[in-house]
Structures
1.
Amino acid sequence: MDNTLVYKANGKILLTGEYLVIDGASALAVPLKFGQTLKVEQSTDNLVYWRAIDVNGVWFEATISLPEFKIEMTSDESVANKAIMLLKAASTQNPEIIANNGYHLTFTLNYDRLFGFGSSSTLISLLAQFFKIDPFRFYSMVAKGSGYDIACAQFNSPFLYTRSGNKATIKPLNDFLPFGQNIYLVYQGHKQDTDSEIDNYQKVKSDAYKQMVESISNITFKIVKTKDLYTFAELLKQHELLIATLLNRQTIKDLRFSDFNGVIKSLGAWGGDFILAISSNPEEYIHEYFKDKQHNIVYNYNDIILTPSVVEHDTIISY
């Protein structure tokens, strides 16, 4: 009898509301076709064999003994310590899962792990599924941030995400961004640490952030309703200027892409991962422009987002 179990979690991008979503701004979140799976096979010993794979092959392995959570073997001690932290936190919520069992856990990303598409959030979601625990409460134990990425891991359509205290509202969207063929995600070549960026945001934000929360939410609401590419681009330009002011940084377009014919917006943790490029120019212009800037990984928005039919009702989650 085959006792193998397989779990799946979606990757994510946050189109609006970065940073301020932590403080209650309504944000526009998009689950991706990119994601991660977990294959679970029970073993006959009290060991967890942890293996992590991405499109480039195996990038991490560890053997962890139970119930001590001791590293027996690993290819990277710092990553192994994080794996132990996650296993310990999950086991406090449901200790029976690994009380008398060992497992082979194989995590597989269908993209490069250096992309900021949610390698950490999908990992947390997958472990929550394996341990049969609430993913949002688990997330609040082991990570910082708003939790929108955990929502993306299990929802299959774009949605509005608004967190207030220990609750968040997820409002699914239909017929969203009909001009997706004019939107591109461009990889800048390095990964930003989200938790570190959140720490920095908490240090630099002033009392002005309260007004910013309302302004960013209003921009998000307008973006959801627009069917016009020019209006969408102008709203994202306003959004970028507001976040730049909040963080006391230059916009990414002023800094690196001032001659781009269109709008450039930072995504997620500013300074790393992907940027959003919006232009009415042909696709050839987009690829040639960024190739000249040494950015060769460019995805069209329509090619990577999940867009199945969605439920009409809102979902309330608790942390």
Note: The mean pLDDT is 91.
2.
Amino acid sequence: MGKSKASLYKILIERLELALSMGFYLEACWLAHAIFEDRTRSIVANSGDGTEHGKALATKIATIKERFEKTKTLVVNGKTVKNKKSGQKEKIPKWHKLHTVDIRVFDRLDKWRQDRNDLAHGLATGEMTHDQILDDSKELAERAKTLTREVCAAARRVKKHATLASAQNAEITD
């Protein structure tokens, strides 16, 4: 991530925290969702072929979790290894960089996304009272405060490993 992008996320997270402190919970949730959309896009793009990067947040989370599950069954050492389950030789998948990510972050992000969608549908249908909206949006915004930092850190780790892998491959071919 370039310096301008890093400073942009610092500003967005500061705005999210300011909105939370001022009681603008829906705004904080909106900012968090924008961050999550972009950072999961980055993780998908930097952990493989990036074919799912333009999809919905739910699809990107599912892609990340699927890729992570595939890497867990392999010894990631840059060589062809045996799959522990099938015994067949397989190539290391392109997205082996995900081994540096705590996948539980994406379980919590998926739960946050579902809860945010429930809130949005409740707002749209008018089924929620003002107090319910306030309580739910406050709880979502508070969860987002921690989760945004964790998702941004995961995106930085994946990008760092992708960059290192590219540099190592360039050295080998030179």
Note: Confidence is low (pLDDT under 50) at residues 73-83, 170-174.
3.
Amino acid sequence: MQGIRSWSGSRVGYFSISNFHVDMAMNGGGGISIGETNNDVRVVNNEIAGMWEDGGGSAAIDGSGQRYRIYGNHIHDNGYSKLYHGIYMDARDTSGPDDIDIGYNHIHHQTGGRGIQIFGDTSALINNVRIHHNVIHHIHLDGIVFHANSGTGLQAYDNVVYHTADPNMRGTSSDPGGSGGCIRFASSSAVASVFNNTFADCAADGDQDSGGIRFDSWSQVTLRNNLVNTTGRYVTTPGSNVTSSNNLWFGAGTAPSFDTTSLNANPVFADEANNDYHLMPTSPAINAGSSAVSSIVMDDFDGNGRPTGSGYDVGAFEFVIACIQGSDCSEPPPCRQAAGATCNSGACVYPALADGVACTDDSNACTNDLCQAGACTHAVVSTCGGDAGSQRDAGRSPDAGTVGGDSGPRVDGGACCTAGDGGPGGGASAAPGSEGNGADAGCGCTTPGAGTTNGSAILAGLALALTASARRRRSASH
């Protein structure tokens, strides 16, 4: 079974895959698969769930080419064996994959496999891969892996990775794999910069080979301004060719000896029990970072400029004073309320809404979204069809449709993302009725079992990274 696939060959490219909900319904295959040698591809603002197979390997999003932009996707509840990952970039493009940007994605509950894996399964090196502003959690093995034939120009910054090597994500695969960590290096060619990440609870399985940062093989790795808060081991088998400074280590004893100007203290998170890794005003991480990262790290996970104080803060979050008193706190995240909010040393603390209250941080109509312990949870609805939606004013082109057009045919209801589909059209504007309504965003249901009507087109492309940025800010509160 295949969700969305582009064919390979002849340097095909210059296309976007955006705003799809791909529910694999516990089947194998791949969610969104970009054919090798497809170049200049954007995969933006999609949701992929339910990919489940114990076979030869795949991923929710996979590809092999040049100039990829993988932004703002929600990838969850996939996997089964160690060979199935959230995002997987390989070297089937034997000319050498290059310039791959993976940012603002939310990847979680990966049963088997890794959150993001770079793995060259040919002799070609994969160069200039940037992994940033992602939140990755509840992963069976590793959160981020630069594996075989990962080459030069590798970067990982402003990521929040927690609860990896999770034994509860093991599943019943015949080949589940074992051990994991928040980030791993397993390529003798890897030259990587790892800056301003927050790594927490990286060795949940307690395995002796699990740890915050796993070193198997590498050429040169530079670690600066990372916050590693984990039990077990901070690093595994560290060796030469690691430059490290201004990192904070807590939870597994004294800091590694190779890290200069290191910190070894409680980072004082806003709400660690609920995975809120923002810094409190008393955190020793504030202003303790190095400015040597400034050419790469210009903002934090939330988009705040760096530095905001006298120096860079350590970890993915800069400390920003949000309030002086409780009345300043008026913008609670989903599943939190402004009533009863308090200001705790410059940070707003919002009380949780009751469990079971509907939440609205996910616009996908094919999930049931309910509050649980102050966080918004999403359960995929297996079918979301029903009465047909209608199509109106379809344009002639998905990007620049002509104004007006004949009323299109009705589309039968059925499985999720068929009810209420528009026609082939769409306009150059996201506003309904201005330059044609169409299929690009006309998918889904207003409620389970009822079709939607007249979904309006939304332009795919870089502008959707703004939506992705808003999504990942919300994700940080979960």
Note: The chain has two domains: 2-320, 382-478.
4.
Amino acid sequence: MVSYFKFIVISFCNLIIFINFFKLIFVNSTLIMTDIPKFIPDLSSTCKLYYGTISGKHISCEEALSLVAFYNSFPSIKDMEAGIVDLLLNVPNDGIESILKSLYSDLNEIIRWYDFFDLCFEDFDLYSLWTQPLSYINKEIEIQHQKTIEASDEHKEASNSYEMTPFNGMSKAEADILERRANKLKEEYDKEKVKLQNLYVKRKSIEEERGSVPIDIFKLIYLKCLDILPIVEKYYKKPVDNKKEQSISMESFFSMLLSGHIYKLCNGIQFEAMSELDFFESLNLHKKSNPLKVRKYEKVRVCYLINQLSEQIEEKERRNEWIGAMLRVCGIAPDYYRSKYRESISDLPSKKNNEFAEALKEILG
């Protein structure tokens, strides 16, 4: 009887352990299932930021911070695989196909764009996004600091006058007036001082925001994507398009022949001198190529060159990618480019601009 009772107790304990273990797995499974659907829109938003960067689109401080948040929330390889397996067991095939396709597409795009436009991402000065906000807050601090000093001086003067009343023969009524004035000015001074302190706190917050963004955040996310992509590929049977894959990895924007003609026209004139092979790789934004360096007073003609060369790229998306990347590599602001790229063929172009436009026209036809 005792042995039977022990058996019942042990079986009951094992059942409790099993139930708790099942609950743990179920809870973790639920978390994983909710994490991946959340990860997909974040990944998609990040993918758009990568494209915006190479296209010359302005990135805000908030968007830069969103890159950091995305990087910090990036799932590990183990978590990603566990999440995909869990989804395979719990989500209909059509839904899984859509999820995996989205994951593969966005991860692959981020990797492709960074591989092809790494110079653009590496040269992007994220800290400069905070230059204007810090400039504004510093100006506010300067103005408020002056107001605080003035309020302090007025308070000190009134306080000194009141403290001297026992010695200058003033009546009690006159002393009361001075006391009230001193107290009022003290309140005004305290208010101005609080405003100044708040501005210092705000500036510190802005500086901490800027400091929280790694200067190589684009590369860090790219490396994370490289880690995760093989896991997604393991479960996603993507359509094979050998021709497309080859064009992505091997195709250049411009031929060696065209690059050679542009080299003869611009090397050492519009751009700092380099070898013809380096020029070809730089013009095509090949990975790890040396960036083109625009010579002094040549930005307008380089804008015209970029515009005219871009017309040789048939696909609009690739054309925009190349323009945005070239502007960043050459240190030319998109607004400046848009205002200057037609100057060489304006109604009254300078002699030098006209000669350059004619020579380029002869090359491009």
Note: The CA atoms of residues 305 and 360 lie 8 Å apart.
